Amino acid sequence: MLSALVLGLLAAISPCPLATNIAAIAYISQRVTDRRYTVTTSALYTLGRMLAYSVLGVLIIKAGLEVPGVASLLQSTGERALGPILIAVGAILLNVHRLRFGTGNAKLSSIGERISRWGMMGGFLMGILFALAFCPYSAILYFGVLIPIAFKTTGGIALPAVFAIGTGLPVLIFGISLSFGISRVSTWFNTLTRAQKTIRIVTSLILIGIGVYYVVLWVQSS
Amino acid sequence: MKIIGFIRKCLLVTITLSICLLLTVSCTAPPATPPAAHGEEPTTYQLGINLLGAEYEATVDSQGKVKTSAQATSADGTVSLSIDKDTIILDKDGEPIQLIQATIDPNPPPSPEDATKVGPVYDLAPQGAIFNPPIKLTLTYDPKELPEGLSENDVYIACYEDGKWEMLRYKQVDTESHRIATRVDHFAKYAVLIPINQGTPILTPEPGTTSVVDRVDVVYFHRTNRCRSCLYAEEQTRYTLETYFKEELSSGKLTFASINLQDASNAAIVKKYGAYTSQLFINAVTGDTERIEHVIEIWQLIGNDDAFCQVVKNKVAKALEGIS
């Protein structure tokens, strides 16, 4: 059990998977002033990872999915899909910010509200997506180390979920500490709105930046 | 108070940005330090090596690590030791050693039931000294001393400890110069033996150099996009092989290949190993049989040069000796 958590952490802090976690942190901190939002979204992000890894684990352990095939497929798709998706999310965030702060009209803010609700679900989707976009290192830890252990242990089916908690832990910790740190200054409204604005722009730029990085990698390799 | 809030905000943004920057740099740049940069110890001393009176020296640091490789042969050429650079030599209590020596045992133990001694018994001292990785011990034998009808290829080196002989499975016999080499990981009494029970030849003899496995292939797979950890794993594996198995690599007994999974021309070998991402395999080839081991332990040792090296070294050494 513990080793699965440690493996997850190992995967989370190695450079390549860390990129996805940074993106998640950036995404979560876009509404850094809303404590509930940051905690819920980081939790949903981790849940998304748990779901993805568990389903994959069940498919391999119970349904006998062939590891080499599925691992290669996920890595190849991950390499290609991740960049464009990150750029898209970053761009959407930038636009949303302009809409809300540009006109301040009631209709537009209700759209903003809706998108911010999607924001929490977005964390969940991001969790699933990032979990499935295997880097070579996370692939070897998941398919090469974790799955063989899961095969051998009774109750091994729970291990992928524990692994997922490990991979999501940095985001979870960051999300929670961020919310606590910021909530202390939340009495000064002006600073807050300005902070929100800056953080939003930085968030989008980070997402687009990481997205471009993945696209460049993909273009280079093909 | 506003100022504090603003400072916090700036701090947050700076931290996030710097993490990102760090990340991009670490992802794109190859490992900054070559894996060869193992910790240098400032204090060194000379380890004395005395083989039947012939004296040699090797520079060793305070941790017992040999700084330069050493070759030592007795004056009559009957005993040789070959110690690789970075071998750690410690006594049985884990303390560094000042002198290692080989003498002929004046009161040799009796031969085991199923074999007979060919030549003297060598007492390698201090007893219990440990070598990591194992060092190469070469002994000569006189073919005239072999019992009638026995082949030179049947000789082996055995270790005498706790009142019994134990055969060392790894051996290289050179029937032209009548020398036999093995690897020893600790000091005890050693001698060349030959089985006298003809019914059960222990090793399949082949002319020239023989050992249990024919060849060991170390194969490293990777994808076109390389991550830092994957580059590290390949570099560190390569370093380990080139440092500790130079002879085996040049003789072709050990091979190393780095293979791109996504290159269509490698499809056959990828399928044979069942590779799907950055993976290291060790394949011990004996005749038509291949025993492939997928080495997964290394992935939890990324960045830990010594431990990584140790795992690869031990696995390859075992594969070469034919131990599963």
What does the model show?
The complex is a heterodimer of chains A (222) and B (324). Chain A is mainly alpha-helical and 222 residues long. In chain A, 46% of the residues are buried. Chain A starts with a helix and ends with a helix. Chain A is globular and about 55 Å long. Chain A has helices spanning 2-13, 15-28, 35-61, 67-102, 106-132, 136-152, 159-183, 189-221. In chain A, helix 4 runs antiparallel to helix 8. The longest helix of chain B has 27 residues, at 2-28. A seven-stranded mixed beta sheet of chain B has the order 2-1-6-7-13-9-10, with no helix packed on it. In chain B, strands 3, 4, 5, 8, 11 and 12 form a six-stranded antiparallel beta sheet that branches. A four-stranded mixed beta sheet of chain B has the order 15-14-16-17. Chain B has five helices and 17 strands. Helices cover 23% and strands 35% of the residues of chain B. Chain B has 324 residues and is an alpha+beta fold. Mean pLDDT of chain B is 79; it is low at 16-41 and 199-210. The radius of gyration of chain B is 25 Å and the shape is globular. Chain B has helices spanning 2-28, 228-244, 246-251, 267-273, 305-321, and strands at residues 44-51, 54-61, 70-73, 79-83, 88-90, 99-104, 115-125, 130-140, 156-161, 164-167, 172-174, 179-186, 189-195, 215-222, 254-260, 279-286, 289-295. Classes of the chains: A mainly alpha (222), B alpha+beta (324).
Task: Name the features.
heterodimer, A: 222 residues, mainly alpha, 8 helices, globular, B: 324 residues, alpha+beta, seven-stranded mixed beta sheet, six-stranded antiparallel beta sheet, 5 helices, 35% strand
Write the layout of secondary structure elements.
The complex is a heterodimer of chains A (222) and B (324).
Chain A: H1 2-13, H2 15-28, H3 35-61, H4 67-102, H5 106-132, H6 136-152, H7 159-183, H8 189-221
Helix pairs in contact in A: 1-6, 1-7, 2-5, 2-7, 2-8, 3-5, 3-7, 4-5, 4-8
Chain B: H1 2-28, E1 44-51, E2 54-61, E3 70-73, E4 79-83, E5 88-90, E6 99-104, E7 115-125, E8 130-140, E9 156-161, E10 164-167, E11 172-174, E12 179-186, E13 189-195, E14 215-222, H2 228-244, H3 246-251, E15 254-260, H4 267-273, E16 279-286, E17 289-295, H5 305-321
Parallel strand pairs in B: 1-6, 14-15
Antiparallel strand pairs in B: 1-2, 3-4, 4-8, 5-8, 6-7, 7-13, 8-12, 9-10, 9-13, 11-12, 14-16, 16-17
